[in-house]
Amino acid sequence: MTALAGWPSPPAPGDPPARVGLYGAGGAEALVAARLEALGSEVLAVSLPDFAQAREVHRVIQAAEAAAVHDGELSDAVPYLSAELRERLQTGRIVTAGQLAGARAAADSYRSAVLAVFDVVDVIVTPVTAFGAPLRNATEAGGLLLREALMRHVGPFSLLGAPVLAVPAALRDGLPLGVQILARPGADRELIALALRL
After folding, report:
1. How far is it, in rounded angstroms, from Cα 30 to Cα 68?
2. Residue 96: what are its φ and ψ, rounded to 5°?
């Protein structure tokens, strides 16, 4: 962020937030919330809008935007892409203007609902995944195809326009397990300071 945003210096480890929202889904998020509670934070269970709907909205927007980029600026690279990626780009090419507009309206509603949680907490702790890092040759995890499993808790937050930082938090079966920390828009520096504290 020092390079990207022109910060004169990285932040120092920060004080724990007063109120931490915990969205539990079976990962390492409860461990991180407990660490913050031990540092003096109040931990509150929070609800988030339907991830399944947000994932579908994210899929439509991502596919359409990726296809637009590859069909324009990167069209020469398309023959070198994997069959899986070319198939996803083809999916994006058939998204209609109406579908994209509807997805963007739904994304705005999702964003408003998630950001409203910051009326009662300073940060939200959620899992990256509910399982340890998959092995390199894995094709599924957590009972889902690998891509779906990895994107399950990650993709929806790209709709927020708010800082989200994934940090390693624990080990499960000897493999790393991470959490995401969400902060309100503009709180990038505070978020990084918190991650350094953890």
Report:
1. 40
2. -80, 165
Residues 72 and 128 placed together within one structural domain of the fold: no
- 185 lies in some domain: yes
Integer Cα distance of 82 and 77 in angstroms: 11
pLDDT digits (tens, 9 = 90+) for 176-192: 888 999 999 999 999 99
Overall number of domains in the chain:
2
Full-model pTM: 0.84
Residue 2 pLDDT exceeds 90:
no
Question: Nearest CA to 45 among 33, 32, 35?
Answer: 33
26 and 65: one domain? no
pLDDT of residue 107: 94
Q: Report the alpha-carbon distance of residue 89 to residue 186 in Å, rounded.
A: 32
What's the full length of the chain, in residues? 198
Q: 107 and 57 in one domain?
A: yes
Residue pair 151/128 in contact (Cβ under 8 Å)? The answer is no
Q: In whole numbers, what is the pLDDT of the chain averaged over residues?
A: 87
